[in-house]
Write a structure and sequence with these properties.
The chain is mainly alpha-helical. It has one domain: Rhomboid-like (Rhomboid-like fold), CATH 1.20.1540. It contains nine helices and four strands. The strands form two sheets. A two-stranded antiparallel ribbon has the order 1-4. It has a two-stranded antiparallel sheet with strand order 2-3. Helix 6 packs across helix 7 and helix 6 crosses helix 9. The radius of gyration is 19 Å and the shape is globular.
Length: 243
């Protein structure tokens, strides 16, 4: 790395920080209980049999559980890098509303699909919520570049690829019903974004560029994840941590 260059990451905001603290606490507790053969999935994971057995609250608690350290680390990075920027754009209250609406919608859709196929699966983890955050980010900043493995892809194409992968998993993988749950969170995120856009249009008579989700693509300028020279002008609008 050249002298005078640095890598910048977004500030960890309040809402995202608490989501990470709570899910991290559940991950550590579940790991400790796993040493004795117990699992929190039995009480907080989502499945049709558990809901019919009275554990209705699992429709909201299933994202609290992750199956391993790499899954938790990956989801934490998505929340930090993408979630924090959405939280800065929307504010903490609306950001948490987006997460809650997405996970509830995804959970209900998962239960519907599970009932139709007649097999028992357990949905757990933040993967679906993170997919919804990526979808929202790609719709709002369609020309910003994200990384798919090692390859930079514009946000709008990243979203298309993400949906296509989930559809493939839903139709062809043995545990495809889990993918339908993730698709449900993405669809729910899209619905609430559309609702917000329509409400602002009614009250203000216009929509911001990122709110024009249906019918056209946002015209926001792309920004990049890059090495930032300390001598660069401080007042630049573009975030310096995306490529």
């Amino acid at each position: 790395m050249r002298e005078g260059m640095q890598f910048q990451v977004p500030q960890l905001l309040k809402g995202t920080k608490w989501v990470l603290i709570i899910t991290g606490g559940f991950f550590i507790l579940n790991s400790i209980l796993g040493l004795s053969g117990l699992s929190l999935v039995a009480w907080f994971g989502l499945s049709l049999s558990q809901v019919l057995g009275g554990l209705v609250y699992t429709v909201a608690t299933y994202p609290l559980l992750t199956s391993g350290p790499m899954e938790f680390l990956f989801n934490a990075m998505v929340l930090w890098f993408i979630g924090c920027e959405l939280e800065a754009l929307w504010g903490t209250k609306r950001y948490l509303q987006y997460i809650l609406f997405s996970l509830l919608g995804g959970g209900l859709f998962f239960l519907l699909v599970e009932s139709l196929i007649g097999q028992n699966f357990v949905l757990a983890g933040l993967h679906g919520v993170c997919n919804a955050l990526v979808l929202g980010y790609g719709l709002i900043f369609p020309d910003r570049q994200l990384y798919l493995l090692l390859f930079p892809v514009k946000g709008k194409y990243f979203c298309i690829i993400l949906v296509a992968l989930q559809l493939y998993s839903g139709f062809f993988s043995p545990g495809g019903v889990l993918a339908w749950g993730h698709l449900g969170t993405m669809a729910s995120g899209f619905i609430i974004l559309l609702w917000w856009a329509q409400q602002k249009r009614k009250t203000r008579g216009h929509m911001a560029p990122w709110e024009k989700i249906i019918g056209q693509v946002s015209k926001r300028k792309a920004s990049h994840l890059e090495l930032v020279d300390d001598k660069k002008e401080e007042g630049k609008d573009n975030p310096k941590y995306w490529q």
